[in-house]
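# step 3/5: fold
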Amino acid sequence: LAADARRDVADLAGLPLVLAPGSDGTPRIVRLSQVAEVEETTGLVQINRRDLNREINFDANTLGRTTGEVSADIRRVLDGVALPPGYRVVFGGSTKNMTESFEYALGALALAVVFIYMILASQFRSFVQPLALMSSLPLTLIGVVLTLLVFGSTLNMFSVIGIVLLMGLVTKNAILLIDFAIRARAGLPRPDGTIAAPMARSDALLFAARVRLRPILMTTLAMVAGMVPLAFSLSEGAEQRAPMGQAVIGGVVTSSLLTLVVVPVVYAYLDDLSAWVRRHWHRRGAGATF
């Protein structure tokens, strides 16, 4: 259009259009007003599509609150909104990335438990004893939940990473305890090179708890001291990672204390179970061991 024809919308009505040639072979010229109505209105600058469906993006930055908290509030509001047929809400951006990362962390947690069991089963040459050692893993969740509540934190990506870290830390205390008890039941070596008399199971567990209490407390206090700066956000920019330190501190403390009580009890029950299975199989003439 010429520059002087761009000032008034009504001028568009007279815009000539060339149509396909008619039966006589000559092109036809009509005005825009003959085939359409021209009116001034508002519209989208661009139309976005995803999977052949139209979409409208709403972008926003959070201030003073985490992305997870804001997303949860938005979801609660949208749950009370009746969307027209064919409309749906999909979260993307940081919220989508956080959800995917959280799912990956849970998968890593499950794999950590499986690998821990495989390693313990190969080292102790038993399928039952690792279960007693791994009974300390659920004990960490008690401390994790209580510590996050005390600090006012949430179960987010960093706290889940702390739980994954705890899977390897808390098993160490159970290994120290049960491994010493197993060796005490077989007979511990004396300083003079002789072998002490084998202990009964209950005596071996009590003796292992007394002897291994100090190393368990030392490693626990060292881990807690190392996580204090992170848990209390003493370093610059550590506020976001603070839940990881808080989860580790709470899980290590409660697991270390409860391991001395729960793990020996679980070990005793599983030991009785394995003995019963061996007797049952031997009566049936099976030569396999459990």
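# step 4/5: annotate
Residues 136 and 259 are 6 Å apart (CA to CA).
# step 5/5: archive (pending)
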